[in-house]
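User: My collaborator sent over this chain with a note saying "see what the structure looks like." That's all I know about it. Can you take a look?
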Amino acid sequence: MDIFKELIKQISPFLKQMKFVKKRNTFYLKSDKNFGIINFQKSRESTNDLVRLTINFGIYSDILGEMDNVFDGSHPDVEDCHWSARVGAFMPGMPDYWREIGVSDDLTNVTLDVIASIQNLILPEINKRLSDEDLINNWINRDFTGTTEIGRFKYLTTLIKKKGDLETLNQVVEDFMQQSVGKPNASIAMEHLKEIDYNKS
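Assistant: Without extra context I'll predict from the sequence alone. Here is the result:
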């Protein structure tokens, strides 16, 4: 028995009920043109008798995808997400969590445990960020930014400019540039602001 494939098979009905669509070991929830993505990753250290796996998840924004041009197809990969995390980030101590499953383990109990993690940890985080407005609020409040600091700045300013909220955009730019004086991020930020035709007025 392929433990990894069997686990995904057993989890699939739950995620389908939650409106996710499956593609290999990744599940997609579409909202407008954005995607919530849940990906099951098997460690290279896995064997036929012992599987190590973790869960990656994130949000793909269609507007931001047009900016970075990383995705050209029907379903983006989890690596293409503009906000992303691994399940351990929302567990006590924020470990890089990998679950070990052996051939002698009760796969039904394992499935129930994994579904509980999806239901209690992953889905609430996805649902908090699925729209562009939610992403804006998340990045302004710095609530687990799910990207680098310069990534947060680029994505946030792009979405706010698209929204047309100049006052908030000016504040975000001012705050970031003050914090980035003399740092490499400052020049990267300036180049990005040119690309989105930012003009403070």
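A starting point for your reply to your collaborator: The chain has two domains: 3-129, 148-195.
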